[in-house]
Amino acid sequence: MLAQVNHDDERSMVQCRTDNDGSVRIKILGSWDIRAVRECPRELLERLRSVGKPEARWDLTQIKDIDAAGGALIWQAWNRTRPRNLLLRPEDAWVLDNLAALPPELPADSTDARTRVDVLRSLLDMLGATVDIIALLGAVALESVALLRSPRDIPGREITATVYRSGAQAIAISGFVGFLIGIVLSYLSGEQLRDIGAESYVVNLTGFAVLRELGPLLAAILNAGRSGSAMTAQIGLMRVTGELEAISVLGISPVRRLVVPKAIGQLVALPLVVVWTDLTGIVGAMLGARLQLAIAFRDFLHGLVRLVPLSNVWFGLGKGALFGLLVALISCHFGFGIRPDTESLSAGTTRAVVTALTAVLLVDAVLAIVFSHLGM
């Protein structure tokens, strides 16, 4: 009995013959490379499985060309187990040897278990980082109290440098972003309010959004990307060059020398950046309202002072200070965790920025829910 199963282009062929004693002989012929099997690999696999049996005698000596693609199909048809009766050319044995050396696929249960382990590990890492950051906050508080007892040791130069980098150098980008956000918010909200005849409410909407949420949030996001990454890179580079170890050998506290000035500088600089972002956002909102809804600048300002309580401004400034401290602590924490190699430096800086941005958004959401009735 002779049965032939061949590919559409007749390049990959399988011959199956049953002898008089009932034994099955399967001969694979033609080309079994990527060019021959890529057209319909599933069909070839089904044909191999339909004629193949575990006790069959396989003859692969007539194959012209074989590579990993064709060998993988045959190996899959064998259920990843080499048959006992196999004839194979020595120059083709490397394909099956490499496939046999591959690790077996994990069952679905093992994959699910590994996924659960990875999720649990991520949660534990997040919890550990949170505990470490809280501990760093406590160390900063203790060192700050110690500095108040000895004002001569206050690192004024480092604090002013942090204020300059986080505040003065961020004026251009924060003002530009705030101005654009104000215009966009005014245009989008004004278009919808005009349809229902409530154009004057654009003052309420933009005033509350900019002063309460967008101003502090935009300032914190820009600060995390600019100043946060710089802080992590600075401390990480000190780890790479061995300066941190030298500071410790000299008996100088790294927290007092590096973290406290950055935390205090952030507490001072970011509320000022929030004020500047709020002002530019309001200017952008006024311009958008003037161009789209013909609301005069004076009317916009009068409505803003009358309708938006001052408590929203103070709330936004408080969030700015909190976000600045949070970015400083997270950046310094990941900076101290960097290993003395350049790859760890880049990875640690990336993790610091991502973590700071995520923490800012989470804290902002919590504050928005807890203090939802403040200033309304």
Question: Brief overview, please?
Answer:
The chain has 376 residues and is an alpha/beta fold. It has helices at residues 34-37, 41-51, 68-77, 93-101, 108-149, 156-166, 171-195, 202-241, 243-249, 254-293, 297-307, 310-336, 342-370, and strands at 2-6, 12-18, 24-32, 57-59, 63-66, 86-87.
Which value, in Å, is the CA radius of gyration? 34 Å
Q: Give the overall pLDDT as a whole number.
A: 84
Number of strands: 6
Q: Give the SSE string.
A: EEEHHEEHEHHHHHHHHHH
Helix content: over 70%
What does the main sheet amount to?
6 strands, mixed
The rough form would be described as elongated
Low-confidence stretches: 1-9
Percent in strands: 5-15%
Alpha plus pi helix count:
13
Q: What is the subunit arrangement here?
A: single chain
Name the structural class: alpha/beta
**Total individual domains:** 2
- Straight-line N-to-C gap: 89 Å
Give a quick set of tags describing it.
Transcription Regulator spoIIAA, 376 residues, six-stranded mixed sheet, alpha/beta, 13 helices, single chain, 6 strands, elongated, disordered N terminus, 71% helix, 2 domains
